[in-house]
């Protein structure tokens, strides 16, 4: 039985871009959630922050997985 070979799909430069992108999305989401908590808006508005957190995690997984 042979192990499957994983060939990276992106290079170091693109991985660095993905890491930077994920940090930016996380920063935006954290700042936004802090502002929403301080302003006292409804919890439903905080649900919108799923999108930047999701995009940050996806960029991080893409960079780590080299895909």
From TrEMBL:
Which superkingdom is the protein from?
Bacteria
Q: Which UniProt keywords apply?
A: Membrane, Transmembrane, Transmembrane helix
Q: What is this protein called in UniProt?
A: Transmembrane protein
Q: What are the transmembrane regions?
A: 18-37, 43-63
């Amino acid at each position: 039985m042979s192990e499957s070979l994983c060939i990276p799909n992106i290079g170091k430069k693109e991985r660095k871009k993905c890491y930077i992108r994920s940090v930016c999305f996380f920063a935006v989401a954290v700042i936004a959630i802090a502002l929403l908590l301080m302003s006292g808006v409804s919890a439903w508005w905080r649900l919108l922050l799923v999108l930047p957190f999701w995009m940050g995690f996806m960029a991080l997984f893409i960079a780590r997985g080299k895909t």
